[in-house]
Amino acid sequence: MSEMRFNPITLDWVVMSPARELRPDDFHHQAESHPARPVHRDNCPFCTGNETMTPGEIARVDAPDGSWLVRVVPNKYSVFNAGDDLRRQKQGTFRSMAAAGVHEVVVENPRHDLDLGDMGPAHLVLVLRMYRERYRALRGHPMVESIVIFKNQGQRAGSSLEHAHSQIMAAPVLSSQVGMRLQEARRFHELEGGCLYCTVLREELAAQERIIDAGTSFVAFMPYAALSPYHTWIFPCKHQSAFDEISDSDIDELAAMLSRLLRRLKAAAGAPDYNITIRSAPVGEVTSGCFHWYLSVVSRISQLAGFELGSGTYINSMRPELCAERLRSVVIQGMD
Hints:
This protein is of the alpha+beta class. 28% of the residues lie in helices and 23% in strands.
């Protein structure tokens, strides 16, 4: 029987429709179409040895032999113009401004054949530390209002290059989605007291049904009104508004938890394409008692269709309780 559930953080109503559920074998059938990749491609701008194919390097993590393990470069096809000022124009309802901002690419590994879930926790630590380093640097940019760290894994998730990479975009405005979530978090703080995100986490821990992994500093769970199959959030246990508040020890735990999650997802759902987003407080709200940063993993198993686009309401073909149970049941040899 279908059921509608409300997500108090995203303000989405989600239709849980298990009658439309895809069988696990269908997921694995999708995975078979992924071809094996070589360790190196001569024409790949992100492969080691091809560094001259990218714009000038911004930051890097060096290997003991002097090569690199993680590097950051400007996006060659940036959606923002780094040198622009905030020129604004208004004529009636027509408003515009210069697309002033920063768009960077984080090349996660010199090898072409490794995805983020293949790299292991120790390497994920390097990637997450680089995210933090760049977040801190971009937060001081005079025109930046919001910073989004995200990864598109696979074609269905919007990736145009197969070499493992993620992106950081620093924009001069807040999106309506972020603004709406911030407004709801403030409303909850004023009416109920405390942090909406901390409250959701406490209730998920009490319910236990959708918990996938829990550590000292982080909890991975599927929200009660998950937007799609295997939609997962990783919340810091301690209230933190901005991602760059994360400590080195907490990065170690987050890297290990994310590594386990990606491996479980690959085993349980057939290596689906996915998006990872770090949702952090807007630059002007980094000390907020309302907002609570978190990491989101959205598997691209289902697709938006006419009902979703026309109504703004999502249909989830798999209840999050079932997805969480399947991920918890996965046992992977050598998993930290």
